[in-house]
Amino acid sequence: MNIRIIAVGKIKEKYLTLAIQEYSKRLSAYCRLEIIEVKDEKIPETASEAQRKKAVELEGNRILSYLKDEEILATLEIQGQQMDSPAFSKKIETYGIQGKSQITFVIGGSIGLSSIITNRSDWKLSFSEMTFPHQLFRVMLLEQIYRSFKIIRGETYHK
After folding, report:
1. pLDDT of 42-100, one tens digit each?
2. Among 8, 98, 104, 111, which residue has the least CB neighbours within 10 Å?
């Protein structure tokens, strides 16, 4: 299976970079992983709604340039479907059984995802109603993908 993560913004903290590297290494035994970072728009705290909308649009167009027609597009959204780890792994396994070998997860920027992207999504997913830092969330997503492959293979990790 091929897994891609398209994320808005760069990782700045070394400890997060190390965690991403660790999970990427672990995942190499289960899938081909690609992480793509797209430039985020810098907007002031006092930005107008129009400025925010324009920033989200620009980020959305950058994401769109990486999307492929034949992939499963999973967007991470607050209003998306919440599920536990076994259900998440089952969803990934089901896509594989159906012959869908490419899943792309999209993590938007701090002001959200463009409707250009969310309207195209095959799987709207939410980890929680809580808000998480976007950089930390990348680690959380990688860990859950890793956990999913361990569950699918019946290997010990998930308790």
Report:
1. 888 888 899 999 999 999 999 999 999 999 999 999 889 999 999 999 999 999 989 89
2. 98
| Class of the domain covering 2-42+49-152 | alpha beta
Residue with tokens 């209003």: 79
Domain boundaries, the chain: 2-42+49-152
What is residue 158's predicted lDDT score, i.e. its pLDDT?
A: 62
Return the ∠ at Cα 37 (arms to 32 and 43), rounded to 5°: 160
8/157 Cα distance (integer angstroms): 30
Q: Which two tokens stand for residue 35?
A: 């992480």
CA 94 – CA 128 distance, rounded (Å): 22
- The two three-digit tokens of residue 147, written as one number: 């956990």
Under 8 Å between Cβ of 127 and 27? no
CA 14 – CA 34 distance, rounded (Å): 19
pLDDT at 47: 85
Q: Which two tokens stand for residue 82?
A: 């919440």
The percent of residues in the chain predicted with pLDDT above 70, rounded, is 99
